[in-house]
TrEMBL record:
InterPro entries in UniProt: NTAN1
Top-level division of the source organism's lineage: Eukaryota
Organism: Oncorhynchus mykiss (Rainbow trout)
UniProt protein name: N-terminal asparagine amidohydrolase
Listed PANTHER family: N-TERMINAL ASPARAGINE AMIDOHYDROLASE (PTHR12498), PROTEIN N-TERMINAL ASPARAGINE AMIDOHYDROLASE (PTHR12498:SF0)
GO CC annotation: nucleus
Entry's transmembrane regions: none
Length: 313
């Protein structure tokens, strides 16, 4: 069980309360992390990771300087970084397939850290969840810790701002203190963050998750290319029902944490549904079953290579 804290292998905790009681420095580290100012990240250096996505890169990447993700309530943001190579992988996990997702995250970093001249270790940063009524956050926290314990590599838990240590009271309601994080790939700094821009292809990527898509690697750091799909969905006109519902109904039935969602949650759901109604078959979005590719332009925007006939080789 090679999950380590302060260079010592830890036993599987029975609860997050137990974990923080055993390792009080994790509590202090979480408080310090939670108190850091939230950074609004410039889209021109950012690769944004949506729910059930992950991406990995290295300091040699000229297209991406920051990996980031936000809008996490019961979800957890999982970051693994190799201290020698600087390679890092960020994932937005919702508990749908934790046991199969964690090995993918670890492999994404180790595969970019094979240079023997750059010795180092794997550091783990976990951020997300809160003291929600259904204990969804708590379950995901424990499953993630257990999944990392099962990896063959030694993994050092550095940041653990999860569940009760990421919980704040706002007008008597429990909410997550940190919703989003970023990592500066060049320096390795991890920080609370928000992202006005969530592209490229925000609605398409949301539609993939909404229709049951599993965890996906969205980035090829060697080519500097974002790859979306291909994925499959079928026409479902019944979802138009949600467009006529009020905010409270949408929150009640389409959120794991109705009282803690960001203000734009309902609009995001409606935009995703509208996209699916406008593209009732995934074939129209992925002609010939081919993925969509996006490359960074000199101006810093993501450009659809398929539309402009650009090579992704």
């Amino acid at each position: 069980m090679p999950l380590l804290i302060q260079n010592r292998i830890i036993e599987r905790p029975g609860s997050t309360v137990d974990l923080f009681a055993r390792y009080p420095h994790l509590q202090e580290n979480a408080r310090v992390f939670r108190s850091k100012p939230v950074v609004d990240v410039d889209p021109k250096c950012l690769l944004y990771i949506q729910q059930r996505e992950f991406a990995a890169t290295t300091p040699a990447d000229n297209s991406v300087a920051v990996l980031g993700s936000d809008d996490a309530t019961t979800c957890h943001l999982v970051l693994v970084r190799h201290t020698g190579s600087g390679a890092a992988c960020l994932a937005h996990c919702d508990g749908s397939s934790t046991w199969s997702e964690v090995p993918l995250i670890v492999k994404a970093v180790t595969s970019l850290s094979k240079d023997p001249a750059k010795e180092g270790r794997l550091d783990l940063h976990l951020v997300g969840g809160f003291d929600d009524e259904s204990k969804t956050s708590h379950k995901l926290s424990l499953n993630l810790l257990s999944a990392f314990q099962r990896q063959k590599e030694d993994i050092h838990l550095e940041t653990c701002c999860i569940t009760e240590m990421n919980d704040v009271l706002v007008d008597g309601a429990h909410r997550p203190g940190v919703h989003g994080i970023g990592i500066n790939i060049k320096t390795g700094e991890v920080f609370p963050a928000s992202f006005p821009y969530k592209g490229p292809a925000e609605e398409l990527r949301s539609a993939r998750t909404f229709t049951g898509g599993q965890m996906a690697d969205i980035y090829d750091s060697n080519k500097g290319v974002v790859k979306i799909g291909p994925c499959k969905w079928s026409p479902n006109l019944d979802i138009s029902f949600w467009l006529s519902q009020d905010d409270d109904t949408i929150l009640k039935y389409l959120s794991t944490s109705p009282t803690a969602e960001p203000p734009h949650f309902v609009q995001h759901i409606k935009s995703t549904i509208q996209f699916l109604l406008e593209h009732p078959s995934s074939d129209s979005v992925f002609p010939g079953g081919q993925p969509q590719h996006y490359r960074r332009t000199e101006q810093g925007d993501w450009e659809n290579c398929c539309i402009y006939g650009l090579s992704v080789s």
